[in-house]
Amino acid sequence: MKKLIIIFFLFSSLVYSQQKGTINGFIYDASNGEALIGANIYLKGMNLGTASNNSGYYAIPNIPEGTYELTASYIGYETFSTKLTIKKGEEKRLDIKLIPKAVESQEVVVSADSVGVAERLFNKPVSKIDLTPVQLSKVPQVVEADLLRTLQSMPGIVPVSDFSSALYVRGGTPDQNLFLIDGTDVYNPEHAFGLFSTFNTDAIKKVEVYKGGFGAEYGGRLSAVINVTNNDGNRNNFEGKTTLSLLTLNTTLQTPIGKIGSLSGSLRRTYLDQTLAKVIDDIPDYYFLDGNLKAFFDLNNKNKLSVSFYGGIDNLDFKLDEDRPQSFGFKYVWGNQTGSINWKTILSPKLFGNFWITASRFFSDFNIDIVEFREENRIEDFTFKGAIDYFYSKEFNFKLGFEQKNINGALKQNFTSARIDVSKHRTLYSLYFSAQWNPDPLWNIETGLRYDYFDSDKNFSNLDPRLTIKYRLTEESNLKFSTGIFHQYANRIPRLFFVSIWVSADDYINGSSSNHYILSYQRMLTKNVEFEIESYYKTYDNIYSFNPNYTAEVEPQGYTEDNLPVFASTKGLFNRGDGYSKGIEILLRKDAGALNGWLAYSYAQTKYLIDNINNNNYFNPRHDRTHAINFVLNADLNNLFNELYGRKFTNSKKQWNLGLNFTYFSGQPITLPASVYIANSVPDWDLTKNSLQLYPSGINEFRLPYYARLDLSINYKILYDGWSLSPYIQVFNLLNRKNVWFIQYENEIKNNTAQLKVKNVTMFPILPSIGITIKF
Amino acid sequence: MKKYLLAIVSLLLVACGEGTVEIGTEQYKPKIVVEGYLTPGSSIKGIRITRNFPINSQPNPFDLILKNANVKVTEIETGITELLSYDDSTFSFEGSNNFVIKYNKSYRLTVEAEIDGHRLEASAVTTTPAKGFEVIRGESVLDSMKYRQKETDNNVKNFKVVFKPSPGTGFYAFSIVALDASYSTFIYDNPYIAVDSSDLDENFDNLRNQLKWLQYINSSAEKIEYEIEWLDTWFYGRYRLIIYAGDENFRRFLLTHSNVQEPDGNFHEPLMNFEGDAMGVFGSYLADTLYFKVLK
User: Distance, in angstroms, between B152 CA and closest chain A CA?
Assistant: First the structure.
């Protein structure tokens, strides 16, 4: 009987929906034809709204016959509004072109339409951050704008040091973050020994960051998703941008391809190896080069195709003493290549399909000739995936997707006393389904289920349920709750200044899992100031921490002809453990106006319990930062007083912009030596200063002093005949605070006493830099 | 307005200055330090029992010796226990000549001592290597050689040790000590790196004493060859090479005790095989000593 009722209900709903109309289409930037992701579309008076998906597509089904006012709004664009009439059963195609705001400072403005802002807040998934290239470019950083370093200024995301762009999201480690560029996985998204990210900010159209509680369409990582979509290319005009910083020369060009599509390409290269390194010996012979190319085609009214490539390479040739033939030196080359073909299709106004073929390759080659050391590190991934959005009714939306990921990994190391030879093929099959239910305008419930089957030395299969509930408290505020189970089948071996090595779940490493519980309150304080408070609790089961004593604990699987060991498994490489993270994040964000930016505070605590470490007691990992304060401010100095006195903004041909970025973090935990003892490495050695050995305290029992930094940027922009010229100054760590990185020790035995000298090693001092950007 | 000014001044004050780390003695815990090895075929000698000390103290190393410690070694299979006595001339504990260590047997060391009013105790077990380790002198290339001497094919020639491993022992440590090391015998004209006298002051012990090892080698192999790299010889003159066929405790201690600081400055625990309040090493080995000479 119950089944009959359900079937009857579904059938009735189908018939009912057929009597009503549908509006669907794409949202574009009128100036360049780029599809806009996450734009808000709203039917006034109907309480019916939606956001454009990752392809810029939207559909509002189940609209009763009548005349409506439809509005569409998006960051930095004039709000679009139109009256339209929907007839019974009509499927109305409405592609909307939004016009960018004319005033520079309003490029980052969220629609002034308060309904749009409130809707955007409600529609926004839990724990999601959206950033535009304009926002990225305005946060002062080391030498030049950088995506990952900007994300380190957001609440819940912390770095471990100035020397790393790695992201620790809500207590998770960097290998728990899924990086996607145009739908393709990126495995080691770092240039220059981790100092900069591989993402060229000039090529980026949109960045979506999910700090937790992400939907069933994402999987394979425990903590976060960083989804980068590159520019499709300008559909209307040829345009270009060139930036020269102290580090790189960067050019981005976009052009229409007749009426059928567009092309966008970026190229960036460091140039110190060709300039300063030629005259200053201490500057190593190093460069990185990366490029993006994306072609976009409108096959017809319903089908779109894009082809995207990324390639990057880092090259370091180092020799300690150029005058000595056998001097210590090494050659280190690494890089990423990714490619994707994406087909988007409107199967029917209510059915939108998105299909990808993607390939990703990471490689690194490291040679130290003097000790005959060779390392080859590879990971390749070839993926088919697809997703169908079904805009079924006003109450229900569905999404169904699949993914098949074929991964090849190889690590070879040759050195004088051993060999490492690991070569593995893995396959991950995933299926997911999610349903969004809007029982009334106050509630939105999204459920999802993801199934993973990971084919490895032994097989892993997991079902990951996801749930998000949103409740509209008032027109301006809402409450959200999200929970889910997340699985991961890969870990990486972190290596400071050297690229990481990925290893997959196998006989010795189980899949890791994490449960997320997130509660969020959001409120629109004024029409362009939003307030958000989020608390989370996150558990970890079977997480793997790299074993620092691995040299003594790995075991060989065979021998060479010379009877030297050959290592071919992950046994002994990691220590298994569990843990949890909890925290609360408060964010005040203003994206609009002459003064914009955000102020964020976060409290966090992460504890790990790792087998055989710290006497099997809980400890805080190094990235645990109890308190964090981030303050990012951008000021359009031309319009500052206009805003303060409520006057109309002016669009001057000479514009000044000021950027500030203040960061405060509690000191990070560190293990320091608690005592000294005397013992020689081998029995026949005499007592020397090398006989003094350090023994650590409990793991991460100490805390370093707090970390604080203030960065500044000043940008002057001259507009002339469609061109713009923007010289800029950036100062990283303006007040030259000496933030402690770690402690160094020097032993000494003098006058029959054992002594230990302690020295603080600090991070980046004040780093001023200049550059210029030309747009045409 | 005052509120904003106060906020800006606070922000500026926070973002300047210098963080410092003071290491106090709160985390210090007294422990027994053991540095001792058993050698099959010999009586027990040279078991050093000392104590650890806090980071900022500057003790006389001889004051660290726990002369009154109660130190025993028990052969696990037979239960026979030897009480060790302290010898002032070697600053270490030793057993009687009647208690001879056997090949391929397990021994437990137990230590009890009082430190800072606390009664501490610890124990560790070592299994001695089996008989069989032997340097094949006829196939080894030792004796003397000019620094980076070249062969007829113009390749650089190396000193080489060939040895038969001990069955079941996969770990071999090579201690290379320059016996004639001095400022005058240092090889300044080396092809690797320029070293001046201040570098030599700083690194003299590191350059004189070199340590290399092989681990997990095929212990059932007929013979193993090991070449001494020229990077391990920084002085002209005589060298002493001691090859240790070490047990698991020796291996784990040697590989981890001095590598407790990671590249990012953080410390981690070394691998030591003690139960109770001790650190250091209680291991066993077979050893052979060889000599070679580097000529100008």
Answer: 20
